[in-house]
Amino acid sequence: MTPIQPAFSLATRPQRKSVFFTTLSCLALAAAGTASASDTTSDAATATAASATTETATANPMTPSAAWARATAPGIVTGAIYLTITNTGDIPDDLLSASSPAAATVELHRHLMRADGSMAMVHVEKLAIPAHGNITCAPGGYHLMLFNLAQPLVAGTHIPLLLTFAHAGTVTTSAVVGDIAAMGFAEASASATAASAP
Ligand SMILES: [Cu+2]
Fold first, then answer.
1. Cα angle 73-74-79, degrees, rounded to a multiple of 5
2. Residues lining ligand 1 (ion), CB within 5 A?
């Protein structure tokens, strides 16, 4: 399977709205892949131990890990970030939005399989992360959709990412860019390491 060129440009992209469907065109592969959470890149604040009371625990319970993206071809203005978000806290939380200097807009998206077997993307308002649970964004499922990339995503680089949660506030992480056919974090990390080797 070869990468499919986006069927829409930013100029013709539908106005942002709560839900839209479009044929899967921005992602090369619809096959499900799984990111192996073999690494943690948490920027969660460390507890300051200022108080022994549980009411003032300060460690941010939202821990992003294994964030990765595929390199993009020149001229392609969309991309996607996949990652795992773990909630170590006692209350459910929602990822409300994400942003990155790599793209003008970042949207929370989900892939769906239509009845006819074709793939569609839907814009979701939030991603729920259960207490003491996690959510994994992976090809074929949830992803952070990047629109209007500042420049093509290059294997071996990292994309800063800011995540905003309903309760936990903002958490930062970075996504490693793997090659254009990468299917998971481990693969992306390996290709990124190879790309940056002297
Ligand atoms: Cu998408």
1. 50
2. 109, 121, 145
Contacts (Cβ under 8 Å, ≥6 apart) of 31: 139, 140, 183
18 vs 83: CA distance, rounded Å: 22
Residue 122 CA to ligand 1 centre (angstroms): 7
Ligand 1 centroid from CA 80, angstroms: 7
Residue 36 maps to a domain: no
**Average pLDDT along the chain:** 78
Q: Is the dihedral of CA 7, 163, 95, 84 positive or negative?
A: positive
Only one residue has tokens 């992003």, namely 64
Q: DSSP string covering 151-181, please?
A: S---TT-EEEEEEEETTTEEEEEEEEEE-TT
Q: Is 15 domain-assigned?
A: no
Cα within 13 Å of Cα(132), Cβ side: 1
For 162-190, what is each residue's pLDDT tens digit?
Answer: 999 999 999 999 999 999 999 999 999 99
Torsion of CA 66, 183, 79, 102, to 10 degrees: 30
Terminal Cα-to-Cα distance of the chain (whole angstroms): 31
Residue 4 lies in a domain: no
Q: What's the number of domains the chain is made of?
A: 1
| 67 touches 185 (CB < 8 A) | yes
Global model pTM greater than 0.85: no
